[in-house]
Amino acid sequence: MESPRAGTRTPILLASLFALALVAGRLPAQEIEPRSYANVPVGVNFLVAGVMQTRGGLSFDSSVPITDEALRTTSLVLGYAHAFPLWGRSAKFDAGVPYTRLSGTAEYLGAPVERNVTGFGRPVLRLSYNFHGAPALGLAQFSNWRQELIVGASLQVSPPLGQYDEDRIVNIASNRWSFKPELGLSKAAGPWIGELKLAATVYTDNDRFYGGTTRSQDPLYAVQGNLIRGLASGAWWSLDATYFAGGRSQVDGRYNRDLQQNWRIGASLSLPVDRRNSLKFAVSSGVYARTGNSFDAAGVSWQHRWGGGF
């Protein structure tokens, strides 16, 4: 992104600084989210509303051993974020929850299953902190700040809430906690920004799994890269990719053949509408999936900002 040095351009540039991932709260280990460690003026609030559709081999609980998935979802997503100072550096808290319609067919242990259900997915709570290269700045100071290297970290937590029926093999949510620590790097070079993120998602056991069993899952490790190009208008686009591996599951102590080694790619486009509002479009697709999660996704979100001098 071009440096926000000109004060008259600051509101337009800020209009596309931050957007919640549409899939946050639904696929926390597999999301592709650019600009998640971008510096934001302290005191700014964000309200995000969006819709996303997916089609293909999508498993909401990646530890469920289903095959030949032909599942379709439509999700309405609502999110909130707040930027604040922490030890002189920029930090933010965000939360999001999806409401999803799921339908389609799959096979479980060779037997066909069909599912049509509507309900809430698991909510997501996340705290992010930029401990290098992103000082806590007000709106007036921010207009003269230029990004170089940002190093940050975050912790994302998803509680065992949302639609779940232990008598059905396919559900929108899963009856377990998940915790995702992440380390992120963001380097600017003129109008370009390159990002690299390393993460691990850890799961608690689901003691109300299908058939009265207990299902556990190994950690799922992920690496993500984003190449972002800022435009003079304040819009930006990005090319995104992620690889995740691990996550082998077991039922009552017996391992399943569901080790994941999967690639996804995507693209995003953010367009400012006015000083307080912007639109974001995102698409992604599975290009290689050892087990499950070979699905296509497309979504659009609206973002509104207030506070912090806006």
Short characterization:
With 310 residues, this protein is mainly β.
How would you characterize the overall build of this protein?
The protein has 310 residues and is mainly β. It has a single domain, classed as Porin (Beta Barrel). The strands form 2 sheets. The protein has a 12-stranded antiparallel β-barrel with strand order 1-2-3-5-6-7-8-11-12-15-16-17. Strands 9-10-13-14 form a 4-stranded antiparallel β-sheet, with no helix packed on it. The chain is elongated. The relative contact order is 0.22. The N terminus is likely disordered.
Strand arrangement across the biggest beta sheet? 1-2-3-5-6-7-8-11-12-15-16-17
CATH topology: Porin
C-alpha geometry: elongated
Structural class: mainly beta
User: What proportion of the residues is helical, as a percent range?
Assistant: under 10%
Strand content bin: over 45%
Low-confidence stretches: 1-8, 15-29
User: How many angstroms separate the termini?
Assistant: 21 Å
The CATH first-level class comes to Mainly Beta
Largest sheet: 12 strands, antiparallel, barrel
Helix count from the secondary structure assignment: 2
Order of helices and strands: HEEEEEHEEEEEEEEEEEE
Radius of gyration, in angstroms, nearest whole number: 20 Å
- Number of strand elements: 17
Domain module tally: 1
The residue-averaged pLDDT reads 85
CATH 2nd-level architecture? Beta Barrel
Corresponding CATH superfamily: monomeric porin ompg
